[in-house]
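Dirigent protein (Citrus sinensis), 144 aa
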Amino acid sequence: GTTFAGEGNQQNLNGNTQTQLGPDGLGLGFGTITVIDDILTASPELRSQALGKAQGVYVASSADGSTQMMAFTAMIEEGEYGDSLNFYGVYKIGSTMSHLSVTGGTGKFKHACGLAEVRPLIPAGQHVTDGAESLLRITANLKY
């Protein structure tokens, strides 16, 4: 779900309430909180093996809605790593790459630290990002 913490709803001349949208047209204005519970997969293909879940929050952290503060946990449930990693940082919508900090983990990833690269995956046939990437590739370089 999302909540908008900005000026938000305004009434038009007909008395109808309208929600103020961000510059991307998606309502990602300053302060918008998006709670996630997303599937982690081995690759971006539709039938790719599910590895676990990413749960946390994204907060539109710039006045124009172009950056999001991300804080989430990647819970890996398949394969040899049945543990979790914690991520924190800022993702710039539409950029080719952003960086997040790895701030810890559990099990085999206890005391993990490192840097994660976040890249949007653009679907075939789409030539530009529109601020609403639904697929992100996260590559984590860890020390643990």
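The radius of gyration is 17 Å. DSSP finds no helices and ten strands in the chain. ok done for today
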